[in-house]
Amino acid sequence: MQYAIVTGASRGLGEAIAKQLILKNVNVISVSRSENEELKSLAEEHGVHYSHVSCDLSKTEEIEKGLNHITEEVFHDKTHYVYLVNNAGVIEPIDTVGQLETEAVEKHMQVNVTAPILMVNRCIREANARDISMGIINITSGAAEKAVHGWSTYSSSKAAINRFTETLALEQKDKKHLILAYSPGVIDTDMQNEIRSSSKDAFADVDKFKQLKEEGSLRSPDEVAGVLMDLLLEPRKVENGKVYKLYDLVNG
C-alpha cells in the first residue's frame, strides 16, 4: 500500500497535490485545521482510502498528537511506500524588521520550520524501523535564496527548510528515500491575496505582485501540482537534497 501525508491539504497547492495523488490511487492523509470535503468525495469515488487529521501546526502538542494518529494509520506491515508533503506554510508577518510582533514571528517559525522538521523526524524514524521507503517533499520558495523587503521571516524560514532538506538527504544517503524541496513559483492562492493586501511600507514589491494578478500571470495550483507529480514519476532522475524550481522544470 502507498500512503501520502499532505499538510495544508484543505486548500491551494496542498489540495491540488492531494487530489492528484488520489487520482494515482495513493491513500491520502490530510493534515490541516479544517477538512476538505471534496477530497473525501474524490477518494470515495475512486475507491481510495482517505482520512483527515485535524491539527493546528502552530501548536507543538497538536503536532505530536496528530503524528501519533498518523503513524498508527500509515506505518504498518502492508505499507511499502509513504509520501510526506510538507506544504503547509504562512507568509505573515509581512513587515520590516523593527515592526515585527513576537507572537507572529513565533507562529511563523513554528508552522514553516518546526512543524515540517517534527513531521519528517517522526516519519523517518517509523519508516526506517520498518524498512519502508519514503518520498519527502518540502515546499519551499525562491525567497529562500534572496533578501526580500518585508519578508525577513519568510525568506529565513524557507532558507532553513532548504538546508534541512539538504542535511536530511546527506544523513539518509544509504536509505532508499527520495528527498527534495520544491519551489513552486507564484501561484494563484489565498497566500497571494495576503501578499497583495500588504502596504508598500511593509512590502516594497507589493505593486509587482498586484500586476502579476492583473496580467493573469499566476499559475494555478493544479498546474503546479502536475509538474511536481511528473517529477515524482521519475525518481531515478531526482538528486536527493536538491531544490527543484518549477520554472526550471517547465522551461528546462
Give a quick summary of the entry.
Helix content is 48%, strand content 15%. It has nine helices and seven strands, in the order βαβαβαβαβαβαααβα.
Question: Could you walk me through the main structural features you see in this protein, from its secondary elements to its overall organization?
Answer:
By secondary structure, the chain is α/β, with parallel strands linked by helices. The chain has a single domain (2-186, 221-245), classed as Rossmann fold. The protein is 48% helix and 15% strand. The protein contains nine helices and seven strands. It has helices at 12-23, 37-46, 60-74, 102-130, 152-171, 190-196, 206-214, 221-232, 246-251, and strands at residues 2-7, 27-32, 50-54, 81-86, 133-139, 178-183, 243-245. Strands 3-2-1-4-5-6-7 form a seven-stranded parallel sheet, sandwiched between helices. Helix 3 (60-74) packs parallel to helix 4. It is globular. The model has no long low-confidence stretch (mean pLDDT 94). GO terms for molecular function: sepiapterin reductase (NADP+) activity. This is Short-chain dehydrogenase. It is found in: Cytoplasm. Belongs to the short-chain dehydrogenases/reductases (SDR) family. It holds the Pfam family adh_short.
Q: Which class best fits the helix and strand makeup?
A: alpha/beta
Strand proportion, as a percent range, falls in: 15-25%
Q: Give the mean pLDDT.
A: 94
Q: Main sheet?
A: 7 strands, parallel
CATH superfamily: NAD(P)-binding Rossmann-like Domain
Low-confidence spans: none
| Percent in helix | 40-55%
Give me the number of helical elements: 9
The fold-level CATH name is Rossmann fold
Number of strands: 7
Could you say how many structural domains there are in total?
Answer: 1
- The run of helices and strands is EHEHEHEHEHEHHHEH
CATH class: Alpha Beta
Ends apart, CA distance between termini? 33 Å
* Spatial order of the strands forming the largest sheet: 3-2-1-4-5-6-7
CATH architecture: 3-Layer(aba) Sandwich
Specify Rg, calculated over alpha carbons: 18 Å
User: Could you say which overall geometry the principal axes of the C-alpha atoms support?
Assistant: globular
